[in-house]
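> forwarded from #structure-qc
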């Protein structure tokens, strides 16, 4: 696949370009919005990776111009961790996904693979499983009307469970997706964080629970309220 990376941080951009090339992608890299837009309009790329904060023309302006010209190529936005408004605007303007900085490179690869498997603009800003609701843009989790406070790692872990509700997820899958490292078997980090989630999510009348499959992994189940 041929990707366009528009990132003005030369250290980060060089690292990402090298990693993407090692993963088998062709990568064109631009460092400002106007040049990035011109390159994006060539029609040569399968996916765009756009930083929001760019000189000359920011990433949201580039995105808006692309969608106005009916360029439907998938767009992955790179945004600051606390830039909720940027994420909302980006998704509203037609971004397909976003990734907050700092990020783990394996997560970037996973999101690229997911975007390349699906048609553009297929973003689910709110995930719902049973009585749980997770807003990936506003970084909020609710059970009915009660807001549940989660750490960044807990939120990422729950998001992965909810995107794969009803499916068995191994400890290795969870560790690679959330922590971004090759899983080492003497670590209990997954068990610890699953425990954190259970304590925060469980309550009287809860319809959703994380079930342990002994020796294999975990499943997020939603009970039928009937």
């Amino acid at each position: 696949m041929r990707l366009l990376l528009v990132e003005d941080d030369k250290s980060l951009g060089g690292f990402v370009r090298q990693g993407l090339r090692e993963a088998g992608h062709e990568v064109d890299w631009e460092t400002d919005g106007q040049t990035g837009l011109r390159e994006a309009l060539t029609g040569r790329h399968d996916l765009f990776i756009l930083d929001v904060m760019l000189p000359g023309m920011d990433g949201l302006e580039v995105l808006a111009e692309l969608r106005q010209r009916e360029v439907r190529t998938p767009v992955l936005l790179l945004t600051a961790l606390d830039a909720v408004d940027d994420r909302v605007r980006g998704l509203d303007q037609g971004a397909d996904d976003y990734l907050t900085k700092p990020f783990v490179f394996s997560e970037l690869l996973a999101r690229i693979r997911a975007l390349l498997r699906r048609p553009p603009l297929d973003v689910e800003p709110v995930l719902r499983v049973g009585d749980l609701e997770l807003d990936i843009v506003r970084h909020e989790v609710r059970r009915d009307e009660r807001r549940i406070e989660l750490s960044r790692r807990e939120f990422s872990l729950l998001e992965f469970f909810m995107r794969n509700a009803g499916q068995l997820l191994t400890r290795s899958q969870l560790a690679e997706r959330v922590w971004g490292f090759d899983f080492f078997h003497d670590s209990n980090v997954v068990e610890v964080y699953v425990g954190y989630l259970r304590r925060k999510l469980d309550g009287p009348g809860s319809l959703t629970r994380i079930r342990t499959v002994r020796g294999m992994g975990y499943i997020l189940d939603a009970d039928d309220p009937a």
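QC bot note: The longest strand covers residues 75-80. The radius of gyration is 19 Å.
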